[in-house]
Amino acid sequence: MPIYEYKCAHCNHIFEEFQKSGETGANLKCPACGATAPEKMFSSFAASGLGHTASGSGSSSGHSCGSGGFG
Ligand SMILES: [Zn+2]
Asked: Model pTM?
């Protein structure tokens, strides 16, 4: 029996429920607050990390011309 994850839209409580094939889960109730029609979450989903952005920022510090004053 497949287990689906649901998230309550009222209190954001995440819970798992046994759901038959074809059921929408609209009749489910949040065990925390009792709100109906929780959001169905896609569990067991391979979330591949996105490519890291190459950040190349060279900080060029301008050389301040030293004013050499003799005397
Ligand atoms: Zn809730």
From this structure: 0.53
